Amino acid sequence: MAQPSAAEERWLEAARDFARRALPACEGPGGPEPPPLEAVLRCLRSAGGGDLPLGYSFISISDLQHQQCMPCCSHLTWSTNEFKEWAHQGQGSLPMQSPLPRTYLILVGYLTDGRQEHDAKLVDGCLYVKDNTGIIPCELLHFELEWLESLFLFPSWSYIPQTDRSAVGYVEILADPVPVNLPKEVCDNIPVTYLASAEPLLTSRIACKKRSKLTVAGELVRLGPLLCIHHKTFFFLFLKCLTSAVWVPVLVQKPNQLAWHHILQLGHRYTITSLSMTSLKKSGQRMFVTSVSSCLLPYCAEQVREQPPDSDLQGESTQSSSLETAEQLSGSLEVGVEEERPRSTKESKIISYVGTVTKILNGQAGLFLLDNKVCLCLAYHQLNFARGLRPGACVELIDVHLLQKPLVSFPFIVLGACLSSTVVLKSFSRLSTPYQPPASSRNLYLQLLFRYNLGMPLYLWLVSLLETFEERFSCFFGRHRLLRSSTHRNPGAAEKFLVPLLQAVVPDRVEARDIYNEILEKIHHCPLQKYLSLNPPCQAPSLSVVCCVAEEKSWEGFSPSQLLSPLEAQHMGTQELNRRLAWSYCTLSAESFQPRLILLGVLRVSSRSSSLQLQDKSSALPCVITHKDGSPFARTALIGSLLQVENYQLVVERFLQTDFPSWEHLANLEHVRGKKNSVYVQFCFEDVQVLHAAEGQIQKGLRSGNSSSLRRKADGSLTSEPETPKAKMLKLEDPKPDTHQDENCQGGQSSAERASCVSRLFVVTQKEGLMLRNYQLRREEDGEGWELQSSFQSTVLWLGRPQLWSHPRETGNLPELEETGCDGEEDLTRQEVLLLFMGKSLRWFPFLHLDGLYRFIVPCCSDLEVFDKLCFPPVPAKSLSRSSCPLCLPVQDTWHLQHETWVSCLTERQLAARSVLTGMDQRISSIPEILHNSFTGSLVSFSGEIVERTLCASLKNEKPFVTVGLRKQKGSLLAADHSLKLSVSAAPDSGVVMDIYIAATYLQHLWGLLPGAKILFQNLERKISRFHNVYCTYIASSCVSIISLPALHLPFPSSPAGEASSPSLVFLSSLQPHLQNLPQARILCHLSCVRTLSLQWVCSLCSSIFKEGRCTQHSPPCPSHTGVRQASAWVLVEDGTGEALVLCKNQHVGAMLGLSLLEWEALQNCVQSRGRVSIQHGEATGTGCVEEPEDLIACYLRNLCRSPLICRPILLDFSLSRKPSKIPQPAPLQLRNFRCGEVEFVSQVGPRPSLLCLNVEEVEQGTLSYLNSERIRRTSSHCQVVATA
Ligand SMILES: [Zn+2]
Ligand SMILES: [Zn+2]
């Protein structure tokens, strides 16, 4: 041998170093011998054809585990081309995956089953490679028992590192290991307890009597999985009689025999010695069980004499007949597409299959995808480690259940391995794919599977729910806390969510799975045999999916014409038409989705939008929460909690940008220029289930220790001496943010002081709406320019003095209310303060409500005067004189708001102490009160139910000053020149309606203004219109809160409500005193004459007369091609108690003239060429049209109006178009004669009210006489009846 080169020297030095470190010294005859390095080198030389692999280096197990963090492989003797070829072949089924990267490492170590380790628990049926530095699990495709505890060189292997803490990495042994030592040494390990005599094989009778050890030989027909139950590992194997179909089970349970599992191969013949008989306690099934001295030997015909087994033990091979091949599976795949009978119980077929793992669907749940088309489910089988089951690996499945479409929403056919199935790894993956081991302990998937003994359909559904759940919320709470199982004291959120769902679908008495039966029973019985294709009973998708689906649903089958009644729409000009389409909504409930949709989310509050939100990883969904008793939602403690809601209203507000010229174009969707939505959800707090309660906000705040509100002296001492107000103010107005506050808080202070916080109790006496105000956040004061700040303010009354808490606590009682009972009255007036919320403190907007008792908590603070630091609101100096601004207390970002209780909930004792609270409550009026003429006061608060909401043109004089800076306002989906008109009724049936106008700019923060919702409006401005109608407008100080949500059953939520009930029948004479607030009423009256009548076509754009297809507007020329027909008439009616002028519009004109719809249509069409036709009562023929001869249509209309046919009794629905107070005070009553049908009346009449026609109905003769007799009976006090002949 030549002298080693320098490189070889270095390599040998490294090898010696490795051997010293990693290889144990051998026990030689003369004491310990040096590590067997020479033998290793000899091995390496022979493997490398005589050369040492100088390009490779030794690696110890410990280095492998700690230094190698990516999957890798090493092939000692391969050329580059060989490796490339090997890697390329491995990519066959997954061309996108990269192959394992090659390393040049030499692995040498002992193969062991762990029996000699200190930790006996290691004997779990797995094999390991170990050296002096460590031990690592390994997987082999081929194994011999005599390899155990021998030193090997591994020429070809892959290392798969651990992916997370739950799993250790392992080695895949790709080629048989080369023994380092000569085989003679290994021979000693082979057990030699040989069959001495030709002992009878299966003689159970003798066995039972004598308890003698038996030897059994047979063909291995089934190999059960390694099972670990109650910390005991075992497996079953089944030997078939060599001459018949009879087979017997053998239980292998001794730790040193578990390694047998790795060498047993189906179809091979084995002999097992020293077996004894046992039977199961429960079922009495009998089987062989190994003893400590049992040996597994290859079958050797000469050494055994066969004896037929006892009938007790024999089992018919029931499966063998139903074995199918992979080809049959592909046939089944096709069948599966055709037959869709979801509701019938199906029987799963038992098949065998060989396939390649192409994806790990869910390692925890034991779901793998094979060949991109079949799902392998190992959850019912054994999930010990699933080592080797990486994408790219090939597996053979024997006797697995084939289930087609167990879950409707699950895309794959499922192969379910049960305990009588065998799963054999055929080849390792050559791809660099990770290993995702199932956590056997704390695996919620498997725990729930076994607890409820779920079948495959329910299990797959459970997996899909849990997967999504984990994906959505583990970023908030951490995986561990979410998936914590109830075997620990406190079940995690996932279990709280899933268990009720499972209990609802699983039969009451769940039969526990009997695994022994499943393995041993002659007739196979397992959870996978029968299944019912399952439609998922419910879903809980991510919020982004919820929003998408809701938006889709809201536009599904939508057409603009749904939003309008055609009778109205045909008379609308372009502007009005498109405005009426601009805003609509659609409400969805859990049942609107298929399957039922459960909402889950973490309750958050956004300071940007000042709205409550449900949040998950994907998105946030604004929400409106109410209480069933109508009290506002104020539970600050719920922030950060994970909520589940099943009873909710998902509202999609639809915003449509359209340019329909007229109603005739509504079907042409080209005129829809833009669609937008906003989605939010409303629900009652009572319908909420808290899956995971938030930890206290204050504690959290304290831990993070951030506070910008600290007002301490620089030396950190508390300011106990009184400060002048001026000094305080200067401090507050210090433009520099407190940069050293955190040091104040965390460093330099004692821990007790650090944890202390100051709190103060207050009651809200007034809250104003959220809007842009010309305030500035202080920190931006030195910046250039100013912009409007979203803000709100609230007037509160301090209760008691500030409290210093050494540590945060929950206060059940309110000590402030009791301790300061004797403070005296004058003290209290001083304690009223205006709170200003801006920036982050805007998040308290949804929680702060009138009459609520709250506490501010300032963490990391011990300054009791922190709440006394009033200042001017941060108005730009030039814009307003400060003297006009009240002092206010800006609420700092870090202050916490904690809701305590409501004024109405205080105990008598607390109330007595605070008698001042009574009387300060804001007056809530009723709608009739506000509508009444005698009402005084301009700011009003009231509650009512929204009857109708319509978009209308902005009131010209209602432009609030904020609109100036509104262009860049985000999220506003309505044009700024729109305003919302809400018709609000006092009670569902009252018919008394108040109109409220809200400018579009305010709408951004107002959720839930839907028909049917009951709303508390606060501080609206009461106004009186030109026509003396009372209405309200929403102004800067206004505020709304939702008392109750609309009922869900409205079939067409966007159609105006209140149409169902017909108005009450009244007399004209009674209009004045009683009915000024009635929205509408009905009279039976006689049409006396038509005063004026006008039919016209107007331009849909500019409302000029539209004639012969063109607009008559010339300067500037109008481009419109669309005319809209319009009609109006004033008619005189009388009902015997009085007369009234009625304004009829559009279709009501036709009805008033007694024309059928067709006649009316034809008449209007005749006007088209003329542009306009109008007549007046008393006009002579031809007058008014000097130039032209009398128009035919005008002539016809005049004759129609004069005809006695027109003067007939009608039923008229109307509203008072002008309130009576507008009419000059009553002229003296006159006596007049009236006719009504056959009856003539003499009556006193007052002035004529003017009415707006809402509907005209013809009266049939029978009805007329009935109504007449009714009214004669009822009106005897009103008028005298003169009988006519
Ligand atoms: Zn089965
Ligand atoms: Zn025009």
From TrEMBL:
Cellular localization per UniProt: Chromosome, Telomere; Nucleus
Single GO BP term: positive regulation of DNA replication
Name listed for the protein in its UniProt record: CST complex subunit CTC1
A GO CC term assigned to this protein in UniProt: CST complex
Q: Where is the composition biased (Basic and acidic residues)?
A: 723-743
Q: Which UniProt keywords apply?
A: Chromosome, DNA-binding, Nucleus, Telomere
Annotated source species:
Otus sunia
A single Gene Ontology molecular function, please?
single-stranded DNA binding
